[in-house]
TrEMBL record:
Keywords recorded for this protein, A-Z: FAD, Flavoprotein, Oxidoreductase
Official protein name in the record: FAD dependent oxidoreductase domain-containing protein
A Pfam match: DAO
Keyword Glycosyltransferase: no
Highest rank taxon of the organism: Eukaryota
Length: 391
């Protein structure tokens, strides 16, 4: 066992744990980041080539988190010296009389976000004929969109954490966290023990399993397997869909929640996927076929008017969400015998990546200062669920 305890031990090196390690190390804290697999593996939630950042949400509590994250993404990429964030406009589309579009318009009004409400012909005109919506749909366009490079972002946080003195250890599966007088002891599958004053659990789709093992508390966070799909743009139309051409990041609220990002990672391909998946055991994945493929093919054909080949996606990648019943995050102290010594960051429900920089900061502050100043974490408290505990 280590002689002097770490100030903070972080369990799980996806984007949330890696961002937390970066913030903790930057504050001069003696920081340890533990990961069960290889760093930058592809078996969790944070790998891949693109994530959307957007400010439009139905729940106002995400607004300040996203705005702060834009600033922190810029800061971190300046420190590392390469580009993580690629700017784009964002557009939400959906039925004009639907509750989601109405709530997004109210949200923009109330928060003073500049936006344009666009009819189908305005959209065709604004985006060079690349996007077509039905006559009874509208689009809500605003300047706060963009693409984040996920694997590159995780590597960036790990590198910056390391440069600031953090200890990073992969292939170290945590099997237990024990309460001690001074804080916690974290135990790995190989029998190593690490003492920490505080601990942050950012175990992604494994978070409920780990929390249950160490505390008996059952968090209602469901791992879900999902897929991203890339589609081939037909010859001659590639330029219309490229990042920097004016093509936006896009969220579509029809029968399915479909999202798209401009061409960036694979020339000639566009990512169009559906926010949906199947419940899974993260240790026994189905690695199943894509989800809602029929709906997705129809969406690609209709919204891109035959300019994108809708027969089959040409690249598919598998990934996991960690879903809470209300799709709000879990950011809180574990409580029970651990009190404020263990903080949990999980349940990011398929929309957390964009906010990783601010979430890492909040988790660090909760662990080390006992509070996150200026942030209301009430929407993210464990207490909002009916939970069971052996404690
Ligand atoms: C297909 C897809 C598309 C998405 N699109 C967007 C988007 O456009 N915009 C957006 O904002 N968000 C998006 N998200 C959501 C976002 O990617 C996730 O919210 C985020 O990556 C969650 O990160 P995490 O660190 O909590 O989890 P993970 O990345 O899964 O990290 C958890 C880590 O903990 C490790 N671990 C688990 N148990 C242990 C243990 N016992 N010991 C040691 N290590 C352990 C795991 O191996 C893993 O590396 C998307 C997610 C997916 C899957």
């Amino acid at each position: 066992m280590e002689n002097s305890p770490f100030d903070v031990i972080i369990i799980g090196a996806g984007v949330m744990g890696s961002s937390t390690a970066y913030h903790a190390a930057k504050r001069g804290l003696n920081t340890l980041l533990l990961e069960q697999f290889d760093f930058l593996h592809q078996r969790g939630s944070s790998h891949g080539e693109s994530r959307t950042i957007r400010v439009t949400y139905s729940q106002p509590h995400y607004y300040s988190l996203v705005i702060e994250s834009y600033k922190l993404w810029q800061q971190a990429q300046t420190q590392i010296g390469y580009q993580i964030y690629f700017p784009a406009h964002h557009i939400d589309i959906g039925p004009s009389d639907g509750p989601i579009m109405r709530s997004l318009v109210n949200y923009c009004h109330n928060l003073g976000i500049p936006f344009q409400l666009l009819r189908p012909h305005d959209i065709a005109e604004k985006f060079s004929g690349s996007i077509h919506i039905p006559d009874d749909w509208v689009g809500l366009s605003n300047p706060y969109g963009g693409v984040i490079k996920p694997t590159k972002a995780v590597a960036m946080f790990q590198t910056l954490a390391y440069k600031n003195g953090a200890v990073l250890k992969d292939n170290a599966e945590v099997t237990d966290i024990k309460k001690t007088k001074e804080g916690v002891v974290v135990v790995t599958a190989s029998g190593e023990k690490f003492r920490g004053k505080k601990c942050v659990v950012t175990a992604g789709p494994w978070v409920s399993k780990l929390v249950k093992t160490v505390s008996g508390i059952e968090l209602p966070i469901q791992p879900v397997e999902t897929h991203v799909s890339y589609w081939r743009i037909k010859e001659g139309h590639e330029g219309k869909f490229a990042i920097g051409s004016g093509f936006p990041t896009l969220a579509s609220f029809g029968e399915a929640f479909v999202y798209a990002t401009p061409t960036l990672e694979f020339p000639g391909l566009i990512k169009v996927s559906v926010h949906h998946g199947s419940a899974c055991d993260p240790d026994n994945r189905p690695w199943g076929p894509g989800v809602m493929m029929r709906e997705l093919k129809e969406w690609v054909e209709e919204k891109f008017m035959g300019m994108v080949d809708s027969r089959e996606p040409v690249v598919k990648q598998s990934c996991m969400y960690s879903m809470t019943p209300d799709e709000d995050f879990v950011i809180d102290f574990l409580g029970g015998e651990f009190g404020k010594d263990v903080v949990v960051g999980g349940g990011f429900s398929g929309h957390g990546f964009k906010m990783a920089p601010v979430i890492g900061k909040i988790l660090t502050e909760l662990a080390v200062d006992g509070e996150a100043k200026g942030v209301d974490i009430n929407p993210f408290r464990i207490g909002r669920f009916k939970i069971t505990s052996k404690i």
